[in-house]
Amino acid sequence: MTKGPIGIILMLLVFLAPLSGCVGTSNLTNDLFENHGVPGGLTLACLDDSSYTRLVIEIDYEEGFKPEESSTDMLAERLESVCDKPNGVDIKFTATTFNHEGSWSADDVRDKGWDAKADEPREGSVLTWQIIFPSGTYEDDSVLGVAVDASTIAIFGESVDDAAGWFNRPSAEEVENSVIVHEVGHLLGLVNLVYTSPADHEDSENKGHSNNEDSVMYWAINSRSVGSFFSGDLPTEFDQDDLDDLNGLADGSISSENQLWRP
Ligand SMILES: [Zn+2]
How far is the CA of 143 from the centre of ligand 1 (A)? Predict the structure, then answer.
Protein backbone atom coordinates (compact mmCIF):
# COMPACT_ATOMS: atom_id res chain seq x y z
CA MET A 1 0.00 0.00 0.00
CA THR A 2 1.39 3.40 -0.91
CA LYS A 3 0.38 6.50 0.93
CA GLY A 4 0.11 9.84 -0.81
CA PRO A 5 1.02 13.12 0.88
CA ILE A 6 -2.51 13.43 2.25
CA GLY A 7 -2.18 10.07 3.94
CA ILE A 8 1.12 11.07 5.55
CA ILE A 9 -0.33 14.37 6.76
CA LEU A 10 -3.33 12.63 8.28
CA MET A 11 -1.06 10.13 10.01
CA LEU A 12 1.05 12.94 11.45
CA LEU A 13 -2.07 14.58 12.81
CA VAL A 14 -3.10 11.33 14.39
CA PHE A 15 0.35 11.02 15.95
CA LEU A 16 0.33 14.60 17.17
CA ALA A 17 -3.13 14.58 18.68
CA PRO A 18 -2.54 12.78 21.99
CA LEU A 19 0.89 14.10 22.87
CA SER A 20 1.68 15.74 26.13
CA GLY A 21 3.76 15.48 29.25
CA CYS A 22 5.43 12.15 29.66
CA VAL A 23 4.67 10.82 26.22
CA GLY A 24 7.66 11.99 24.17
CA THR A 25 7.16 11.50 20.47
CA SER A 26 8.97 14.51 19.09
CA ASN A 27 10.78 12.51 16.43
CA LEU A 28 7.71 11.86 14.34
CA THR A 29 9.48 11.18 11.08
CA ASN A 30 11.70 8.52 12.61
CA ASP A 31 8.76 6.97 14.40
CA LEU A 32 7.06 6.55 11.06
CA PHE A 33 10.01 5.41 9.01
CA GLU A 34 12.18 3.47 11.42
CA ASN A 35 9.12 1.60 12.56
CA HIS A 36 9.79 1.88 16.28
CA GLY A 37 6.17 2.93 16.56
CA VAL A 38 4.42 5.25 18.97
CA PRO A 39 3.64 4.50 22.63
CA GLY A 40 0.74 2.08 22.33
CA GLY A 41 2.02 0.67 19.02
CA LEU A 42 2.56 -2.74 20.64
CA THR A 43 -0.59 -2.71 22.76
CA LEU A 44 -2.28 -5.55 20.89
CA ALA A 45 0.96 -7.55 20.92
CA CYS A 46 0.74 -7.43 24.71
CA LEU A 47 -2.98 -7.91 25.16
CA ASP A 48 -3.23 -10.85 22.74
CA ASP A 49 -1.59 -14.27 23.17
CA SER A 50 -1.75 -15.64 19.64
CA SER A 51 1.78 -14.67 18.54
CA TYR A 52 3.68 -13.39 21.59
CA THR A 53 3.25 -15.80 24.46
CA ARG A 54 5.84 -14.29 26.80
CA LEU A 55 6.54 -10.71 27.87
CA VAL A 56 9.97 -9.62 29.07
CA ILE A 57 10.52 -6.27 30.75
CA GLU A 58 14.15 -5.37 30.17
CA ILE A 59 15.39 -3.05 32.92
CA ASP A 60 18.68 -1.33 32.03
CA TYR A 61 19.92 0.74 34.96
CA GLU A 62 22.96 2.80 35.80
CA GLU A 63 24.73 2.27 39.11
CA GLY A 64 22.65 3.68 41.95
CA PHE A 65 19.44 3.74 39.92
CA LYS A 66 18.22 0.17 40.05
CA PRO A 67 14.47 0.32 40.71
CA GLU A 68 13.02 -0.97 43.98
CA GLU A 69 11.88 -4.58 44.01
CA SER A 70 8.43 -3.35 45.09
CA SER A 71 8.18 -1.40 41.81
CA THR A 72 9.14 -4.21 39.47
CA ASP A 73 7.09 -6.81 41.39
CA MET A 74 4.05 -4.56 41.18
CA LEU A 75 4.66 -3.92 37.48
CA ALA A 76 4.83 -7.64 36.70
CA GLU A 77 1.61 -8.18 38.66
CA ARG A 78 -0.25 -5.41 36.81
CA LEU A 79 0.94 -6.68 33.42
CA GLU A 80 0.01 -10.28 34.23
CA SER A 81 -3.50 -9.11 35.01
CA VAL A 82 -4.04 -7.33 31.67
CA CYS A 83 -1.78 -9.03 29.10
CA ASP A 84 -2.47 -12.59 28.03
CA LYS A 85 0.95 -14.26 28.35
CA PRO A 86 0.76 -18.02 28.98
CA ASN A 87 4.56 -18.25 29.20
CA GLY A 88 4.74 -15.49 31.75
CA VAL A 89 5.88 -11.95 32.40
CA ASP A 90 9.55 -11.75 33.38
CA ILE A 91 11.73 -8.89 34.52
CA LYS A 92 15.34 -8.91 33.32
CA PHE A 93 17.84 -6.60 35.04
CA THR A 94 21.05 -5.38 33.44
CA ALA A 95 23.52 -2.94 34.98
CA THR A 96 24.85 -0.64 32.28
CA THR A 97 26.31 2.77 31.53
CA PHE A 98 24.77 5.01 28.92
CA ASN A 99 27.79 7.33 28.54
CA HIS A 100 25.50 10.31 28.40
CA GLU A 101 26.34 13.82 29.60
CA GLY A 102 23.78 16.39 30.66
CA SER A 103 20.00 16.17 30.60
CA TRP A 104 18.01 13.77 28.46
CA SER A 105 15.75 14.53 25.51
CA ALA A 106 13.22 12.08 24.05
CA ASP A 107 15.67 11.49 21.20
CA ASP A 108 18.47 10.69 23.66
CA VAL A 109 16.24 8.14 25.37
CA ARG A 110 15.44 6.60 21.99
CA ASP A 111 19.08 6.49 20.85
CA LYS A 112 20.65 5.23 24.09
CA GLY A 113 17.73 2.93 24.79
CA TRP A 114 18.00 1.23 21.43
CA ASP A 115 21.80 0.94 21.78
CA ALA A 116 21.27 -0.88 25.08
CA LYS A 117 18.44 -3.20 24.03
CA ALA A 118 19.47 -6.83 24.43
CA ASP A 119 16.72 -8.02 22.10
CA GLU A 120 14.41 -6.69 19.45
CA PRO A 121 10.96 -5.83 20.82
CA ARG A 122 9.50 -8.73 18.85
CA GLU A 123 11.62 -11.83 18.55
CA GLY A 124 10.10 -15.26 18.02
CA SER A 125 7.26 -15.58 20.49
CA VAL A 126 8.72 -13.04 22.94
CA LEU A 127 7.63 -9.44 23.29
CA THR A 128 10.19 -7.24 25.06
CA TRP A 129 9.54 -3.82 26.52
CA GLN A 130 12.45 -1.82 27.91
CA ILE A 131 12.71 0.62 30.79
CA ILE A 132 15.99 2.48 31.22
CA PHE A 133 16.91 4.01 34.60
CA PRO A 134 19.71 6.46 33.80
CA SER A 135 21.51 8.94 35.98
CA GLY A 136 20.57 12.56 35.27
CA THR A 137 17.23 14.15 34.56
CA TYR A 138 14.93 14.78 31.61
CA GLU A 139 15.37 18.14 29.83
CA ASP A 140 12.21 19.24 31.65
CA ASP A 141 13.33 18.12 35.10
CA SER A 142 9.78 18.05 36.43
CA VAL A 143 9.19 14.96 34.28
CA LEU A 144 9.76 11.70 36.19
CA GLY A 145 9.36 9.29 33.30
CA VAL A 146 8.80 9.30 29.57
CA ALA A 147 7.55 6.76 27.04
CA VAL A 148 9.25 7.52 23.72
CA ASP A 149 8.14 4.79 21.32
CA ALA A 150 6.27 1.49 21.25
CA SER A 151 8.80 -0.36 23.45
CA THR A 152 11.02 2.20 25.21
CA ILE A 153 10.62 4.09 28.50
CA ALA A 154 13.01 6.09 30.69
CA ILE A 155 12.46 6.76 34.39
CA PHE A 156 14.64 9.40 36.04
CA GLY A 157 15.57 8.32 39.56
CA GLU A 158 17.00 11.67 40.64
CA SER A 159 13.69 13.37 39.86
CA VAL A 160 11.71 10.53 41.46
CA ASP A 161 13.72 11.03 44.68
CA ASP A 162 13.04 14.76 44.55
CA ALA A 163 9.31 14.13 44.11
CA ALA A 164 8.84 12.57 47.55
CA GLY A 165 6.42 14.58 49.69
CA TRP A 166 6.71 16.25 53.08
CA PHE A 167 7.56 13.77 55.86
CA ASN A 168 8.20 11.23 53.13
CA ARG A 169 4.48 10.94 52.29
CA PRO A 170 4.52 9.76 49.62
CA SER A 171 8.00 8.28 49.76
CA ALA A 172 10.32 8.13 46.76
CA GLU A 173 9.67 4.39 46.64
CA GLU A 174 5.91 4.96 46.48
CA VAL A 175 6.38 7.55 43.73
CA GLU A 176 8.52 5.07 41.78
CA ASN A 177 5.87 2.33 42.24
CA SER A 178 3.27 4.57 40.60
CA VAL A 179 5.48 6.03 37.89
CA ILE A 180 6.67 2.64 36.60
CA VAL A 181 3.08 1.38 36.22
CA HIS A 182 1.99 4.73 34.75
CA GLU A 183 4.67 4.74 32.03
CA VAL A 184 3.98 1.14 31.07
CA GLY A 185 0.31 2.14 30.93
CA HIS A 186 1.33 4.43 28.07
CA LEU A 187 2.89 1.45 26.24
CA LEU A 188 -0.53 -0.17 26.70
CA GLY A 189 -1.97 2.82 24.83
CA LEU A 190 -3.57 4.52 27.84
CA VAL A 191 -5.31 6.94 27.70
CA ASN A 192 -6.58 7.33 24.11
CA LEU A 193 -3.06 7.11 22.62
CA VAL A 194 -4.01 4.57 19.93
CA TYR A 195 -7.80 4.44 20.27
CA THR A 196 -10.77 6.51 21.39
CA SER A 197 -12.37 5.43 24.62
CA PRO A 198 -16.15 5.17 24.80
CA ALA A 199 -15.80 6.52 28.35
CA ASP A 200 -15.08 10.17 29.04
CA HIS A 201 -12.00 9.67 31.22
CA GLU A 202 -9.21 11.45 29.34
CA ASP A 203 -8.16 14.67 31.07
CA SER A 204 -9.11 17.61 28.87
CA GLU A 205 -5.98 19.59 29.65
CA ASN A 206 -3.49 16.73 29.86
CA LYS A 207 -3.97 14.64 26.76
CA GLY A 208 -3.08 10.97 27.02
CA HIS A 209 -3.91 10.93 30.73
CA SER A 210 -6.79 10.08 33.04
CA ASN A 211 -8.94 12.64 34.80
CA ASN A 212 -9.48 10.23 37.71
CA GLU A 213 -7.11 10.71 40.61
CA ASP A 214 -7.71 7.10 41.64
CA SER A 215 -6.19 5.85 38.37
CA VAL A 216 -2.45 5.30 38.00
CA MET A 217 -2.88 7.06 34.65
CA TYR A 218 -3.89 10.28 36.43
CA TRP A 219 -2.08 13.19 34.78
CA ALA A 220 -0.17 14.35 37.88
CA ILE A 221 1.58 11.00 38.37
CA ASN A 222 4.48 11.67 36.07
CA SER A 223 5.28 15.10 37.49
CA ARG A 224 7.70 16.15 40.16
CA SER A 225 4.80 17.92 41.88
CA VAL A 226 3.06 14.58 42.52
CA GLY A 227 4.12 14.75 46.18
CA SER A 228 2.17 17.94 46.67
CA PHE A 229 -0.99 16.54 45.02
CA PHE A 230 -1.14 13.50 47.25
CA SER A 231 -0.34 13.59 50.92
CA GLY A 232 -0.87 9.86 51.30
CA ASP A 233 -1.40 6.90 49.03
CA LEU A 234 -0.69 7.30 45.35
CA PRO A 235 -2.75 5.31 42.87
CA THR A 236 -0.92 2.24 41.54
CA GLU A 237 -3.75 0.55 39.70
CA PHE A 238 -5.58 1.02 36.44
CA ASP A 239 -9.15 2.13 37.16
CA GLN A 240 -12.27 0.52 35.71
CA ASP A 241 -12.31 2.82 32.66
CA ASP A 242 -8.67 1.97 31.91
CA LEU A 243 -9.40 -1.75 32.27
CA ASP A 244 -12.55 -1.45 30.14
CA ASP A 245 -10.46 0.24 27.41
CA LEU A 246 -7.88 -2.57 27.51
CA ASN A 247 -10.60 -5.24 27.42
CA GLY A 248 -12.28 -3.49 24.49
CA LEU A 249 -8.98 -3.27 22.60
CA ALA A 250 -8.29 -6.94 23.32
CA ASP A 251 -11.67 -8.18 22.09
CA GLY A 252 -11.78 -5.76 19.15
CA SER A 253 -14.87 -3.85 20.30
CA ILE A 254 -12.65 -0.75 20.48
CA SER A 255 -10.70 -0.19 17.28
CA SER A 256 -6.99 0.55 17.54
CA GLU A 257 -4.63 2.63 15.41
CA ASN A 258 -0.92 2.62 14.66
CA GLN A 259 -0.36 -0.99 15.67
CA LEU A 260 2.97 -2.59 14.67
CA TRP A 261 1.32 -5.98 15.03
CA ARG A 262 -2.25 -7.29 14.93
CA PRO A 263 -3.68 -10.73 15.69
ZN1 LIG B 1 2.03 10.08 31.52
Answer: 9
